[in-house]
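thread: overnight batch results

M.L. [08:02]
morning all. the overnight job finished for the chain we discussed friday. pasting input first so we're all looking at the same thing
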Amino acid sequence: MVDVSRKQATDRTAHARAVVEFPRSLAERLTDGDIRTAKGPVFATAIVAGVMAAKKTHELIPFCHPLGLDDCKITIEMDGGTRAVIDCVCKVHHRTGVEMEALTGASIAALTVYDMCKALSHDIRIIETLLVAKTGGKKDFHRA
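M.L. [08:03]
and the structure it wrote out:
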């Protein structure tokens, strides 16, 4: 791990995004803001899984500091077509950032969507996972 003991604790945020692309026939099953399968409401379950994963990032990725997140919010919305956009925003007051927590939350939410829908189609693709923005620490980052 990197020694952060001499860093000053500051408010830090990170926003990560994952995008899941569905075949049109599956995207058309969206009702009331979610897709329902035999396993249950897909997006609602993925949100819970993503938050749980963000909280356990240090257990999944070697050398990540264990952080007690102050907040973790995940939203999932269809883009008007065949893609679900998953946004994960994490916040903490700490000596180290929360980029990995946000990326982990978005990634696990996307994998949960895949898992819950794979019986309906294997043409689902997780096409992107990226850091959108971070604040706090040495310098802020905002993807253009």
